[in-house]
């Protein structure tokens, strides 16, 4: 089985229906990964796709698609939060698939998963501070705050205290070391590993995922032509909340500051029309693709 077959893009049918690719138009796949969305968009219409990814390990797959689609496919290496600098032309539609890719999770040596022993890394760009740096260098309160904020882990203070206690004897170097520390504090519930939330928090912090998302959404808005689509697939509540609130704000549906105050009306024209509520994957997809179970899709059209 090839890499392309192994890594099935989540909610592909719903993404294509939301984006509605057309001949002669230009689309941006802001999170290339293994190229699933990119290839499907190119196959669905005689259009152009510009893809972005910070991970240098995607380059062999980029070469495959370049050989197949030629000038219809262009790749730019970088972070999608820098779309303003990376994309220099008007765009008819953007697709974002937020978070870690299944390809990164499957590569044990990248340190994203606690299921196999590997260096505690988690860097999507393979550069900068790693998860091991954060775990070993942050003060106890900083660690607790990070784990609570990005992992929504109620036992964050206990986990941080245990990490600090452990690192007095040796540096925490591997995924399995950290996972066992967390499991000594948090008990397993149902089929969710106790280390899940802590690993999520570290991954988000290492890659500034939420900051990237906020910058990416705003930059995509500025590059979209009138009538252009912005399609976003998220996988946990922190990401989805950012996307939901962004679309509401830019559609002129500002949330009230207080329930005791009158509704706040925007003073500027809306940038987007809200073209959908949240879309969930089908039960059939959830049954065959575990990653799809937590997925949510939202999209809007630029006015």
Short overview:
Helices cover 42% and strands 14% of the residues. It is an alpha/beta fold. The longest helix has 15 residues.
List keywords for this structure.
single chain; 303 residues; alpha/beta; DNA polymerase, domain 1; 7-stranded mixed β-sheet
Secondary-structure blueprint:
Layout: H1 3-6, H2 12-19, E1 26-29, H3 36-44, E2 48-53, H4 59-69, E3 73-77, H5 83-86, E4 91-97, H6 102-106, H7 131-137, H8 140-151, H9 156-167, H10 175-183, H11 196-207, H12 209-223, E5 224-234, H13 237-250, E6 272-274, H14 283-288, E7 296-302
Parallel strand pairs: 1-2, 1-4, 2-3, 4-5
Antiparallel strand pairs: 5-7, 6-7
Helix pairs in contact: 8-9, 8-11, 12-13
Q: What number of domains?
A: 2
SSE arrangement, N to C: HHEHEHEHEHHHHHHHEHEHE
Report the total helices: 14
Question: Low-confidence spans: pLDDT under 50, at least 5 residues?
Answer: 1-5, 256-261
Strand proportion: 5-15%
Structural class: alpha/beta
Largest sheet: 7 strands, mixed
Number of β-strand runs: 7
User: What is the typical, i.e. mean, pLDDT?
Assistant: 88
CA-based gyration radius? 20 Å
Q: CATH superfamily membership of the largest domain, which one? A: Vaccinia Virus protein VP39
CATH fold-level label of the largest domain: Rossmann fold
Shape assignment: globular
Fraction of residues in H or I helices: 40-55%
Using the coordinates above, name the CATH class of the largest domain: Alpha Beta
The CATH architecture of the largest domain would be: 3-Layer(aba) Sandwich
Distance between the termini: 43 Å
């Amino acid at each position: 089985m090839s890499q392309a077959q192994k890594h099935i893009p989540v909610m592909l049918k719903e993404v294509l229906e939301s984006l509605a690719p057309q001949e002669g138009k230009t689309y941006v796949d802001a999170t290339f990964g293994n190229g699933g969305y990119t290839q499907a968009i190119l196959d669905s219409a005689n259009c152009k796709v510009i893809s972005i990814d910070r991970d240098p390990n995607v380059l062999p797959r980029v070469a495959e698609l370049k050989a197949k689609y030629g000038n219809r496919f262009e790749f730019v290496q970088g972070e999608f939060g820098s779309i303003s600098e990376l994309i220099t032309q008007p765009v008819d539609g953007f697709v974002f698939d937020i978070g870690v890719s299944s390809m990164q999770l499957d590569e044990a040596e990248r340190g994203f998963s606690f299921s196999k022993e590997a260096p505690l890394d988690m860097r999507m760009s393979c550069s900068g501070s790693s998860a091991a740096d954060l775990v070993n260098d942050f003060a106890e309160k900083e660690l607790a705050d990070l784990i609570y904020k990005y992992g929504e882990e109620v036992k964050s203070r206990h986990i941080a205290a245990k990490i600090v206690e452990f690192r007095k004897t040796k540096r925490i170097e591997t995924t399995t070391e950290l996972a066992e520390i967390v499991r000594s504090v948090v008990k397993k519930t149902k089929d969710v590993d106790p280390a899940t939330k802590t690993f999520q928090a570290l991954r988000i912090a290492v890659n500034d995922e939420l900051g990237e998302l906020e910058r990416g959404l705003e930059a995509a808005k500025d590059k979209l032509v009138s009538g252009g689509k912005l399609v976003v697939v998220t996988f946990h509540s922190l990401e989805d909340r950012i996307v939901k609130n962004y679309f509401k704000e830019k559609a002129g549906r500002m949330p009230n500051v207080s329930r005791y105050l009158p509704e706040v009306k925007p003073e500027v024209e809306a940038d987007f029309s809200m073209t959908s509520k949240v879309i969930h994957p089908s039960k059939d997809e959830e049954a065959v693709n575990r990653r799809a179970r937590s997925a949510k899709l939202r999209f809007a059209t630029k006015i």
